[in-house]
Amino acid sequence: MRTIIAADKLVRFTDWCLSLIHRQLAILFCVIAIGLSGCVKYDTGVNFSSLNYGEIVEHIQLGEQIKSFDRQAVKTWIVSIERRTKEAEGKMERISDREFQIVIPFNNVRELVSKIDRYFNPTPVKQGRATFNAHMQINQSNLLVAVRNQLIYDIDLRLLKSSDSQTAVAAQNFVDLNFSLQSPWGVSNSDATKNIVGVKALNKDRVQWQLKPGELNHLDAIFWLPNPLGIGAVLIILISCGGYYFKYRQLPWQLESK
Questions:
Q1: Which SS3 state, helix, strand or coil, does residue 77 take?
Q2: Same domain, 56 and 11
Q3: Are 210 and 185 in contact, with CB atoms under 8 Å apart?
Q4: Is 60 in the same domain as 81?
Q5: Sign of the dihedral defined by the CA atoms of residues 238, 243, 247, 252, in that order
Q6: Cα separation, 4 vs 178, whole angstroms
Q7: How far apart are CA 42 and CA 211, in angstroms?
Q8: CB-based contact 134:155 (threshold 8 Å)
Q9: What is the pLDDT of residues 151-190, one digit of tens each?
């Protein structure tokens, strides 16, 4: 009878784990919850190099104690990461047996939002079970030579606030989740950001937010990107005006009306 009760509890706990941040992290949370004293460091970055190109970069580090866990379970978790990466047209590099880096390229903000949703949001599970939810929105304003972008990112980690105190403490104390944003013309955090552990500028063009387990994290940031079409148009106008001036010794708008 005790065996049946224990098995039922294990099934319920497994269902809870499958609704966490990524399905590929479920095994790790199971390990942590049963007493594995280690740390999962999960850094996600969105790096813009230009208006039309950027990369989603994830860096995952596992605690030393992961070696003592079931190798097949860890292998299954790694395979799930590789599958999600391929589905998002990215590549995964194994730096070591406990450290990985995933790079997913994108060509514009619309593709970024689509790939973030495809990679981070798990496939809907059976009715009645809660699912992790992350939603990104980017609003753009074209100011000719530059594009102003407002990034709004809601990351729901309230599932880490479990009624099971041991599970909740394990998840909140041993998981380090960070999100960063990089842009060549700078990033600034908005006052609308809330329910996070902290925010810091890593350098002049990158800002990092440390997420708070058990909360609905709301990130709001402004970043600027150069507009090559707008810059090209301004250069063409300046060159044309310069050529006209050297030919007629006056600018077009200086001509007297006849």
A1: helix
A2: yes
A3: no
A4: yes
A5: negative
A6: 39
A7: 10
A8: yes
A9: 999 998 887 665 554 444 445 556 789 999 999 999 999 9
Six token digits for residue 210: 């440390």
Q: Are residues 247 and 160 in the same domain?
A: no
For residue 67, the enclosing domain spans 2-226
The answer on 257 and 154 residing in a single domain is no
Average pLDDT, the chain: 77
Q: Tell me if the pTM is above 0.85.
A: no
For residues 134 and 246, state if they share a domain.
no
Q: How far is CA 213 from CA 24, 31, 155, in A?
A: 17, 17, 10
Tell me the mean pLDDT in the region 207-227. Answer: 94
Length reported for the chain: 258
Tokens standing for 74? Answer: 């860890």
Nearest Cα residue to 32 out of 46, 16, 44: 16
**Number of domains, the chain:** 2
- The whole-angstrom distance between residue 120's C-alpha and the CA centroid of its chain comes to 8
Same domain, 245 and 203: no
Q: Checking DSSP bridges between strand 53-62 and strand 40-50, what pairing results, if any?
A: antiparallel
What is the distance between the alpha carbons of residues 131 and 124, in angstroms, rounded to a whole number? 7
Helix (H) or strand (E) holding 27: helix 26-33
**101 and 166 belong to one structural domain:** yes
Cβ atoms of residues 125 and 144 within 8 Å:
no
Which two structure tokens, joined as six digits, stand for 223? 């970043």
16 and 61 both lie in a single domain: yes
